[in-house]
Amino acid sequence: MTTALQITDLTKRYPTGTEALKHVSLEIGAGEFFGLLGPNGAGKSTLIHCATGLASPTSGAVRIFGHDAIHDYGAARQKVGLAPQDINLDWFLTAQETLDYHGGYFGMAKQERRERSRELLDAFSLTSKRDERTTTLSGGMKRRLILARALMHRPELLILDEPTAGVDVELRLELWQYVQRINQEGTTVLLTTHYLEEAEQLCSRIAFINGGEIVAQGTSPELAETYAVASLEDAYLELVGRKELSRGSVSEISA
Ligand code: ADP
């Protein structure tokens, strides 16, 4: 199987001295829908930043479809679409310009940019907002535009960092439907989320990260088995040391 993302012995120490990643190794196969779960401060964003060139690793290697993310940055970056956690839109651009500029940055020709942005604005129900400045869009529209922008250059690996934080239920389901569809069409997806049910439903494999280390990985039932518990949620509670919050134990207490 082709490897979409290969992380080998990755360590990231910030200038403050915080070791955000400690010898992390992780492999995601082409076509997978992979979930990365862990509490705040676990190192999820740092891992994503190292994979997309936004942070440089202290040591170790990252390869994206075989391209070294540091030494062959251009080729590696071309393969990746990133929808970051922060809404980092340019407030001076319209929705359409946001997509067009991004396409230009990734070397797409004008005609191709026009067609692709039209297609994505339509897919994300943003056509009526195409000429509006991003600052005037609602929160949900901004989220959709960020996802459209990530997909603009047809990346083979889509990285979604908490893409549905603060998004209402309908929009969340809509976004998932779209992401599931492009995964079925062949795009590899790496997702970080706090919604365990979502990870369980969407991800073919999940890794738990804590304190800068990958502590377990597998399918949702495999993770439950690793922690000798009944569900992914209980496995996660074991990971973060809060098993007293397990719904099983709450119903035992109230019984
Ligand atoms: P997560 O995304 O899982 O919440 P992060 O990767 O953001 O975790 O953070 C991992 C650790 O690195 C935390 O201790 C955080 O405070 C620290 N950290 C993140 N970014 C920086 C930075 N730019 N400078 C210094 N420390 C950072």
UniProtKB/TrEMBL annotation:
Keyword Nucleotide-binding in record: yes
InterPro entries: AAA+_ATPase, ABC_transporter-like_ATP-bd, ABC_transporter-like_CS, ABC_transporter_ATP-binding, P-loop_NTPase
Record-annotated ABC transporter domain positions: 5-236
Membrane association type: Peripheral membrane protein
Entry's localization field: Cell membrane
Domain of life per record: Bacteria
Gene Ontology cellular component terms for the protein in this record: plasma membrane
BP-aspect Gene Ontology terms: response to antibiotic
Keyword field contains Transport: yes
Residue runs in coiled coils: none
Name the UniProt record assigns to this protein: Efflux ABC transporter, ATP-binding protein
Source organism: uncultured Solirubrobacteraceae bacterium
